Amino acid sequence: MIPLLTMPLLNAETFSIAGETDVAYAVLGAKNYAKQIGFTEVDQYMIATAVSELARNIFVYAKRGTIHLNALETPLKRGIEVVAEDFGPGIRDIDQAMTDSFSTGGTLGVGLPGTRRLMDDFQIDTNPDVGTKITIRKWRSR
Amino acid sequence: MDTQKTQMDNTHQAIISAIDKSQGTVEFNMDGTIITANDNFLKILGYTLEEVQGQHHRIFCEESYAGSQEYQEFWEKMNRGEFDSGEYKRIGKNGREAYIQATYNPILDLSGKPMKVLKIATDVTEQKRLDAERTEQAALIMEMSTPVMQLWDKILLLPIVGLVDSRRVQLIMETALQMISDYQAEIIILDIQGVPAVDSAVANHLIKVTKATKLMGCTCIVTGISPKVSQALVNLGIELGEILTQSTLKHGVNTALKKIGVELTHI
User: Fold this and answer.
1) pLDDT of residue A142
2) Where are the domains of chain B?
3) Is A27 in Cβ contact with B196 (below 8 Å)?
4) Above 90 in pLDDT, residue A138?
C-alpha cells in the first residue's frame, strides 16, 4: 500500500484488546467511526465485521493488542483505516493463513481471507515472536 | 569535559525529579526493609514515612503471599540483581487494598553487588476497579439477554442481542437444548438481528448450535439475515450450508408455523 498524506477529519481512536468484552467495544467503536465518516449501513457492517475478525484474532492468538481507527481523506475520496497490532507469536505461514479454510485455532479459517474481501486494502506484517500488524482500509466515494 | 559532565548531571537530576513528582518511589535494603519512600508512594497506601521506615516490605503484602515460596523467590531474585515488573496487589494502612503497576530495580554498588532496591510505582486501583465493574456489567447483560420463549406449541424463539462470545454461546447452547427438551420443541428460531457483527467466529458458533439442535430432532431456523448481514457473510466466505435461514423474524415464524401445520389467517 502507498502511504497517504491525509487530513484528519476525525481524531484517531484506539481500543486495547485484552478480553472478549474488548472485542465488542472495538466492534461498536468501529461501526460508529465508520458512520461518522459517512459510510453506508452495509459498509459500516462490513467494517465492523472486519474489525471483529481482527480483534478476535488478537484475543485468541496473542491475548493482548490494540485496534487503531483512523479517518483517511484524499482529494478524491474518504476512507477508514484500521490497524490491528499485537505482540503475540506472529503468523508462521502467511500464505497458509490467507488461504480459505485454513486454521490453527479450530475455527472456520475464513477470518483473514474474508477480512481482505470485506475491505479494499489489506496489508499484513508479521514476525515470529515479535508480533503481527494488520492494516486494512476501505474507501467510499465522495 | 566539565561542562559535559555538568550537563549530564543536570539531565540526571531532571529525570530523577520528574520521576519523583509523577511516580511513587520506595527504596529498600536488600533484606527488604524500607529505607525511604516519597509522598506519592505513601499516599497510595495511606502511610506516613515514619510508619514504614525500617519496616519490611511484607507489610504491604497479603499474608498468604508474604509467607509464600514465591515471595521468598522474589527477594532472592532481587539479591541476584534481577529486575522485576508487573501489576501487584498491595495492602495499605488499615487493610485497604490497592493495585500498583510497579518496577523493582536492584541498584548495584561499584563491585556489581546489589546494594538496594528502587521501586517505582503507579496507582492503578481506580483503573482496576473500573475494569472489574465493566466486566461485571458485561456479564450481567449477557446473562439477561438469553431469554428463550415459547412462541407456539413446539416452537421456541431465541432472540440473540449483543455480543456473541464463547461464554455466551455456551449459555445459548445449554439454554436452547434444555428448553427444546422441556417443551419437546420441533422448531427453534434463532433471531440474530441484534448481533452487532456476525463474523466467522459467531457464524461458527451458530453452526454448532444448529447442529446440536438437529441432533435433538429439532429444526433450527436462523432469522434476521438482513441484506447487510448476507453481504458480509458472502464476502467473508462463510457457507451456512444446510442451515435454514430467513431474512426476517416474520418470515421465520411463518415458515415455522407451516412446518407444524398451522396457518395464520385474517379474521
Assistant:
1) 56
2) 8-128, 141-259
3) yes
4) yes
Q: Which residues of B touch A105 (CB under 8 A)?
A: none
* pLDDT of B145: 64
Residue-level length of chain B: 267
Q: Going by C-beta distance under 8 Å and a sequence separation of 6 or more, which residues neighbour residue A119?
A: A46, A47, A50, A136, A137, A138
Class of domain B8-128: alpha beta
Q: Which residues of A touch chain B, with CB atoms under 8 Å apart?
A: 19-21, 23-24, 27-28, 31, 41-42, 44-46, 48-49, 51-53, 56, 100, 107-111, 113-115, 117-118
The pTM for the full model equals: 0.65
CA nearest A44 in B: which residue?
A: B228
Please give, rounded to a whole number of angstroms, the shortest distance from the CA of B204 to a CA of chain A.
6
Closest listed residue to residue B127, CA positions, set B44, B43, B25: B44
Q: Which CATH number does the domain A13-141 belong to among 3.40.50.1110, 3.30.565.10, 3.20.20.30, 2.40.50.140?
A: 3.30.565.10
Tell me the pLDDT tens digit for each residue of A96-131. Answer: 888 777 776 656 667 888 999 999 999 999 888 889
CA distance B89 to chain A (A): 19
CB A30 within 8 A of CB A13: no
Instruction: Report the percent of chain B where pLDDT is more than 90.
Output: 49
In this structure, CATH architecture of domain B141-259? 2-Layer Sandwich (3.30)
